[in-house]
Amino acid sequence: MKLFTKAQERKLKANAQSQTTDHRPVVKLFNPCGSATWLLTELHEDNTAFGLCDLGLGFPEIGYVSIKDLKSLALPMGLHIERDRHFVADKTLCEYNNIAQQTRRIVA
Predict the structure, then answer these.
(1) Residue 108 placed within a domain
(2) pLDDT tens digits along 3-53
(3) Is there a domain that residue 42 lies in?
(4) How far apart are CA 101 and CA 83, in angstroms?
(5) Which of 20, 31, 49, 102 has its CA 20 to 30 A from that of 77?
(6) What CA–CA distance (Å, rounded) separates 92 from 58?
(7) Do the domain assignments include residue 1?
(8) In Å, how far are 47, 71, 80, 87, 95 from 106, measured between CA atoms?
């Protein structure tokens, strides 16, 4: 499975060029073997994405992640990081972050 559809990739890149800073997440990625989750709002030319990142350790944070690194992760049973095909954001990134700081995990 690709991490982004073409439409999601276009939206992520458009958000990266936008003057607005608090977008709704475009895509939710997750580790099917663990509790790591990423809510991404932007994709930059250097193939880094911006969003809310939670490695499942109880410390979600807003920051950047390398898409190359996510694609190269070798998970058990031959699995890879996946895209939640049913995710539709109903909050902005800051709203998701506020909840994540209270619950110590991404709730989406």
Answers:
(1) no
(2) 999 999 999 999 999 998 899 999 999 999 999 999 999 999 999 999 999
(3) yes
(4) 23
(5) 49
(6) 21
(7) no
(8) 23, 21, 20, 13, 11
